[in-house]
Amino acid sequence: MANELLFFMEVLVGGLLAGTMYSLVALGFVLIFKASATFNFSQGAMVFFSVLAFCGFMQDFNIPFVLAFILAAFLMVVVGLCTERLVLRPLMNASEDTVLMATIGLGYVLEGLAQAAWGVEVRRLDLGIGDFPVPWIADNLKLFISALDITAGLVAAIMIIGLFLLFKYTKIGLGLRAVADDAGAASSIGIPLKHIMLLVWSAAGVVALVAGMMWGARAGVQFALVDLALKALPVLIIGGFSSIPGAIIGGLIIGAVEKILEVYIGPFFGGAIEGWAPYVLAIFFLLYRPEGLFGEKIIRRV
Amino acid sequence: MKPIFMTYTKKDLINLAVCMVLSVLIIPTFIKTEYWYTSILIPWLCLALATIGQQIVMGYTGQLALGAAGFMAAGAFAMFNLILRVPDLGFVGSLIVSGLIAAAFGILFGLPSLKVRGIYLMVATLASQFFIIWMIDKFGWFKNYDSSGIITAQDIVILGKPFTTPLAMYFVCLAVTTILTLLAMNMARGSTGRNWMAVRDMDIAAESMGVSLLRTKVQAFAISAFYCGVAGALFAFCYLKSLEPVAFDIKLSFKILFMCILGGLGTINGAFIGAAFILLFPVLLNAIGNNVFHGAIDATIISSIEQVIFGLLMIVFMIYEPLGMAKLWENLKQSMKSKLSSSRIKGVKSPVLKK
Questions:
Q1: Which domain holds residue A20?
Q2: How far away is chain A from the Cα of B131, in angstroms, using its nearest Cα?
Q3: Which of A99, A195, B158, B302 has its CA 20 to 30 A from that of B111?
Q4: Which residues on chain A are in Cβ contact (under 8 Å) with B300?
């Protein structure tokens, strides 16, 4: 009995920590959605693009870790700048769906550019953190939890606290919230819309880079990252599109439920149900609470 | 009694006649190389048919769906099993029934559309994509317990006659596509299509005018999935000639989405234009890579460039012409017409001016 409980705990904790990885991707979506009500479908591609660039800098040019990180982050700022200038500004008054489709296009561009510049083969990314159980926890608590998972959890926690403080206590955060509330009114009282957008896209880019590094260290830097990032969508539906805590809780729920279902119910169906389980979970959520756990209620007028 | 077929204008009939002559008489007499049939014309017809399905749900009813390839897989594997297990049904019967099976999935996964829209719906339809592929992959019955993963499709036999040459398969695809395209046009122009478009433009207003949202949306999803299912069956039996779930992955769904959007949302001819573009552009790009640069550019780089160009086109179209290539074509025709008529006016006026 105790063993079973321990096993369940292990599955649960593993799932929760893996869920923080989804949260990291979802965080980028939320940042952009919060500030511009734009659904950025290219977030997954940004994850892939940024981490491939990071690997490229580090492995092809032998640039040290920190400098490569700064360069990749700077590259994401440039991407954000170009996106704001070339894609979002011309589509300022277009419908939501149009902007969404343009970001699908943007995703294609980023994926293509990344592969053209740095090749299509799978790259190994070594962060110096092993993807194996931490001995101390394994000995004392009898839980086998990967060091990488714990790192990802910590990184996610730090980023969330940082973003929360940014939104709550700085002038920039106030501006961000004002723009999110009503872009027109915000710009009429002198909040520079352009800078806010640039800032948000850059922040989303850096979040994407961090998420990509975590994913890359686990599964290798490869095109499949884009598909993995798609799982951030059910996370968002569960958490709500405009809530940072929502992204986290949503990620944790998806991560835990996915693992538990896979371990306990998966064997009856031949396994690999994690491929679709999050989406079906999202459908059930949609039917009962379309705005997600923490999202704002959607009101539409005729 | 409501007329089943709409009245056609003279222009429609001329268009139809031109298309028929072109596809039935001219193409088979002038194109002899098998490559054109097996690699371009057949997949073009199949994918155009799937794109029409996508158009119905996305272009006409305004529901963002991203699961076309899942329904195609359902259709393809339904076809395989029907021919295998119910041989009495025949090819055409199996094709219809497999379309209906796909339609059942369409109804099931279209239900969330009653509650949500936009990106939310997109996620719900992604569930269908992943679920259908997983189901086919995991339950051996669908693949007739074939362990190799790739099953060879059965030969097409209609009324005891085998259709195995590329030309014959082309005609099979052509016949199915023509019939379904005509049907789609009728639906789009009739009250069915009016309801779809009313829901697309403002669902709440449509509902208050007496259009049943449940009926309209579910109908659109069912018909869309039917088209995708039939297209999937043709795609597997005439083009791939094999069945594997991997062929219907999310990439194909995105491809069909691109065909639909670049071709022109809410148009039937846009489906054909979009499918032709997405299919032919890589061929062109490869030809340029091989002939101009003589293979100096790596094939993977070419495919990356292709992806970048598709993405850029998507952005450019969204900014400048959200209605896609069909609208561009329409504009071109308009400007040609006005040029022609203005030159005619000039021709009349010029002697007056001289005087």
A1: 2-288
A2: 5
A3: A99
A4: 115, 119-120
Q: Please provide the DSSP assignment of B189-253 as one string.
A: HSHHHHHHHHHHH-HHHHHHTT--HHHHHHHHHHHHHHHHHHHHHHIIIIII-EE-GGGGSHHHH
Q: Considering the domain boundaries, does residue A296 fall inside one?
A: no
Q: Please report residues of B whose CB lies closer than 8 A to that of A271.
A: 138
**Is A300 a member of any domain?**
no
Q: Which residues pair with B151 in a beta bridge?
A: B243
Q: Which one-letter DSSP state was computed for residue A133?
A: B
Determine whether the interchain pair B112/A286 forms a contact, defined as Cβ–Cβ distance below 8 Å: yes
Residue type, B197: M
Cβ neighbours of B39 (radius 10 Å): 15
Q: Write the residue in A113, A233, A300 that is nearest to B308 by C-beta.
A: A113
Q: What is the CATH number of the domain that holds A44?
A: 1.10.3470
**Which residue among A94, A99, A112 sits closest to B304, beta carbon to beta carbon?**
A112
Calpha distance B186→B3 (Å, rounded): 11
Q: What residues in A contact B204, CB-CB < 8 Å?
A: 300, 302
Facing B118 at nearest CB: one of A97, A104, A115: A97
Q: How many domains does chain A have?
A: 1
Tell me how far apart the alpha carbons of residues A31 and A198 are, in angstroms, rounded to a whole number: 12
Q: Which residue of A has its CA nearest to B254?
A: A104
Alpha-carbon distance B6 to B61, whole Å?
20
* Residue B4: other Cβ atoms inside 10 A: 7
Measured CA to CA, the distance from residue B69 to residue A131 in angstroms comes to: 35
User: Nearest CA of chain A to the CA of B204: how many Å?
Assistant: 6
Cβ separation B310–A108 shorter than 8 A: yes
DSSP string computed for B152-183? EPPPEEETTEEE-SHHHHHHHHHHHHHHHHHH
- ipTM computed for the complex: 0.85
Q: How far is B174 from chain A (nearest CA, A)?
A: 31
Position B9, amino acid: T
The per-residue b/e assignment along A119-152, b for 16 or more CB within 10 angstroms, e otherwise, is beeebebeeeeeeebbeebeeeeebebbebbbbb
Which of B64, B137, B319 is the closest to A90 by Cβ? B319
CA distance B74 to B88: 21
Domain residue ranges in chain B: 10-249
The beta-carbon neighbor of A109 closest among B124, B308, B318 is B308
Provide the residue-wise pLDDT of chain A in tens; the chain has 302 residues.
577 888 888 888 888 888 888 888 888 888 888 877 788 889 889 999 999 999 888 888 888 888 999 999 999 999 988 988 898 888 877 888 888 889 999 999 999 999 888 887 788 877 766 667 767 666 666 667 777 778 888 888 888 888 888 878 888 888 888 887 777 888 888 888 888 888 888 889 999 998 888 888 877 788 888 877 788 888 888 888 878 888 888 888 998 888 888 888 877 776 677 778 888 888 888 878 777 777 766 666 55
Q: Which residues pair with B163 in a beta bridge?
A: B156
Determine, yes or no, domain membership for A293.
no
Q: Could you tell me if B257 lies within 8 Å of chain A, comparing CB atoms?
A: yes
